[in-house]
Design a protein that fits this description.
- This protein has 182 residues and is mostly helical.
- It contains ten helices and no strands.
- Helix 3 packs antiparallel against helix 4 and helix 7 packs across helix 9.
- The longest helix is centred in the C-terminal third of the chain and has 22 residues.
């Protein structure tokens, strides 16, 4: 039995939109749809390890932000866009010009930085970037935790060594952080 991914994508994205309707103004609903459309276009040719279209991951992260965490418009937009800068040709400047400084800030914090030389290590530098942002705005951390939660929920599709790495990071860093946040 083959899966109709277009219908699945539409169905799952609709869950996000339904969760936000009534909570946000109509102009924010337009922005949410625009963010989803950009993410869908940007990730169009990408697949997850399971073979599913990659866009299902940002939709799942946006769903966690919208339904489980009850976040406002900009963090949900950032959830749709959180991997666009990291995995496609779009830049933070593209995000800022389309969705504003606030969304660009959230996406920038969640995006793993690509550098030729890291201050400590890639992993430590990414943790520092995220924790430094908390003094300004906790929403970026919540988007990152939603991203990690979905990655943990889909861990079975990874190779065992990758499962151990992700689970170890989660156990050591993300779970205690989430616990402290309540």
């Amino acid at each position: 039995m083959s899966v109709d991914y277009e219908k699945l994508i539409d169905k799952r994205s609709q869950v996000v939109f339904e969760a936000m309707e009534g909570r946000v103004p109509e102009e924010d609903m337009v922005r949410l749809h625009q963010a989803f459309d950009l993410a869908r276009h940007a990730h169009a040719d990408q697949k997850r390890k399971t073979g599913e279209p990659y866009i299902l991951h940002p939709i799942a992260v946006a769903t966690i932000c919208a339904k489980e965490l009850m976040l406002s418009t900009n963090p949900v937009i950032a959830a749709f866009l959180h991997d666009v800068v990291e995995d496609t040709d779009f830049t933070i400047d593209d995000i800022e010009s389309r969705f504003g400084h606030d969304v660009a800030f959230l996406v920038r914090v969640v995006t793993k930085q690509k550098k030729d030389k890291y201050d400590e290590s890639k992993q430590v530098d990414n943790y520092k970037q995220m924790l430094d942002s908390v003094q300004y705005d906790i929403r970026a951390l919540l988007v990152k935790l939603a991203d990690r939660l979905h990655n943990m929920r889909t861990l079975s599709s990874m190779l065992p060594d990758k499962q151990m790495k992700i689970a170890g990071e989660t156990d050591y860093f993300y779970a205690p952080l989430a616990n402290r946040l309540g």
